[in-house]
Amino acid sequence: SYADARIRIELFRDSFIGHEPRLQLARIIANSYTYLIEETNHDTFNIRDKGMAAILTDLTTYYLADDKVIVWAHNAHIAENLYNIEYYEGMGYYLKEFWQDELYTVGLFMIKGASANNFRESVKVGAHNIDSLESLAASVTKDIIFLPFTTINEAGLEDDWLHTETFNKNWGAWNQKTILAEAYDAVVIIENSTMPDYLD
Fold first, then answer.
1. Which stretches does DSSP call E strand in 41-165?
2. What predicted TM-score, i.e. pTM, was given to this entire model?
3. Are 34 and 13 in contact (CB under 8 A)?
4. Which is more confidently placed, 62 or 188?
5. Which helix (H) or strand (E) element contains residue 136?
């Protein structure tokens, strides 16, 4: 049964005790089996992101403890709070739990152009809502914008849009609402995105 399989895999995974790279790799492989047998997409998303956070935390704690580490990932994976997706807590949520103020999360957004999906297919950047993050950025004549946030909602109205639901794009194509200051410490917005040149 599913329940028995889950218990056996978890026991198998937890039998690899220690911080040697081969033991960590064994735990990662065992955990991936848990991901494969999950009954719903919702469960697989959460297990995948929790596993990514655990792997990253292990690597940075035991092998890169004296270094600063930069991780490149999709906005949905790195966001510290995806309150608008009830069933999903991304990697950033789990990293924030562990690293607290040592974690600095930067979302990446684009005004026009195209990006690539997981199948290397082109995803065209769609039209933006009039009150969206991208529309605000488009009104500034810059090729690239770096916009840092603060978690504190300052007095006055100027930064209120960072602390309330604001439209932005997912994959550059679908409108979603995010409380930006709760999801990221900053955002980078580029004017024009192009498809990557793949190496293989």
1. 106-116, 122-124, 144-148
2. 0.78
3. yes
4. 188
5. helix 133-138
